[in-house]
Design goal:
This protein is mostly helical. The protein contains five helices and no strands. The radius of gyration is 16 Å and the shape is elongated.
Length: about 160
């Protein structure tokens, strides 16, 4: 899972840094939601449709939370997932074409990367955003990671 960050350690926090990091997390959540949309149309993953739909909804919920925080800071959420989203969708399409175990492995790697992004963000976010990530978003992301790892392990059985 994700490593621990010492929040007592002195940090340099700026409004611009907070906005940049929240926007980055928002784009990552958009990419995750889009990746689940791709995964859900592949026959290789039909067996896991209910779980994948649930994880897509959970990512949408985190998008809403991040979007609300950005708006609280008088910033607009990004409109697209950017280059990472395009890359993630392409990788997931290719993996799904190869088979369910590969596709679920790619999802697990993407979920792990997002969990790590949440952990890394704790050192640059303002106090309110840091608490939001530490108490709500990161724990939820860790649950998503566990769920996807579990079905990935099951797919190899």
């Amino acid at each position: 899972m994700s490593s621990h960050v010492d929040l007592a350690r002195p940090r340099t926090v700026t409004r611009e840094g907070t906005l940049a990091q929240l926007s980055s997390l928002y784009r990552s959540e958009l990419a995750a939601r889009e990746t689940y949309e791709v995964a859900l149309v592949h026959a290789a993953l039909a067996r896991y449709g209910d779980v994948l739909r649930r994880q897509k909804r959970v990512h949408a919920e985190r998008l809403a939370v991040l979007g609300a925080r950005l708006r609280d800071l008088a910033a607009l959420p990004p409109e697209s997932s950017g280059a990472w989203g395009t890359f993630a969708r392409t990788v997931e399409q290719t993996a799904a074409a190869v088979g369910q175990e590969t596709a679920l492995g790619v999802l697990a790697l993407e979920e792990e990367a997002l969990a790590n992004d949440y952990v890394a963000s704790l050192t640059v976010l303002d106090a309110i955003s840091c608490n939001l990530v530490a108490e709500r978003l990161l724990p939820a992301q860790n649950v998503t990671l566990l769920v996807i790892r579990r079905i990935h392990r099951m797919s190899g059985s």
